[in-house]
Amino acid sequence: MDISFDRRFLSETQTIIAMDEAGRGPLAGPVYSCCVLLRKEEEERLLSDIPFVDDSKKTSPEKRKQIVKWVLARNIPFAIGTASVEEIDCENILRATEKSMERAVENLGLTFSLALVDGNHLRLSFPHLLIPKGDATSMRIALASNLAKYYRDGLMESYDKEDPRYGFAQHKGYGTAKHRKAIGEYGATPFHRLTFAPIYKETDFATLSEWLSNGEISSQRYESILRKRS
Questions:
Q1: Which residue from 39, 116, 185, 206 has the highest number of Cβ atoms inside 10 Å of its Cβ?
Q2: What pTM was estimated for this model as a whole?
Q3: Is residue 134 within 8 Å of 123, Cβ to Cβ?
Q4: CATH fold label, 4-160
Q5: CA-to-CA distance for 105 and 108, rounded, in angstroms?
Q6: Nearest C-alpha neighbor of 196 from the set 221, 215, 178, 177
Q7: How would residue 13 be classed by pLDDT, with cut points 50, 70 and 90?
Q8: For the chain, which residues make up each domain, given as ranges?
């Protein structure tokens, strides 16, 4: 991936950040967003040191690890924002994604002129340009994409250690055959997105009521799930 797309937005007076998310499609876990500030003077170093930066869906875990290591070593400013499974269930995945992006910008804590954002149909409060499939077009968005996926994958791997029945370390919450089979065999958990099909179809009222009583899900989330089932 070259830098030509990004350079059309750069000027001496503008500070450009880039943003992408990881985890809109899975059946479990939160959604993560990352915003990153790659300054113009860092471009050539990135292209020289880690020329394999690309859409995170095309990048291996080992290459993503190298990307993160490079970003940390070079002190490249970036920040992560998240939205929980409860927010996904109580609102929707689009709104939760928007919240995670807003939080990433807040966590970055830097003034910028424009954010290049992968996606469409997003409503964001900060100055931005939506670029469909931006992670395959913009090197900066691709960088954010890899950071978001790396940190979300790490969370899913840690959850796998707590409950290895579902194979989260392998599929990261996506609806693979193995994951769906595990849901059918063991049922869902509060870590799953309980308003997503096929999750809510596999979760009975007794289980939901038990989670509510134990404080594992909130009353607001419980009501959202019931509305989805009705």
A1: 116
A2: 0.95
A3: no
A4: Nucleotidyltransferase; domain 5 (3.30.420)
A5: 5
A6: 221
A7: low
A8: 4-160, 165-229
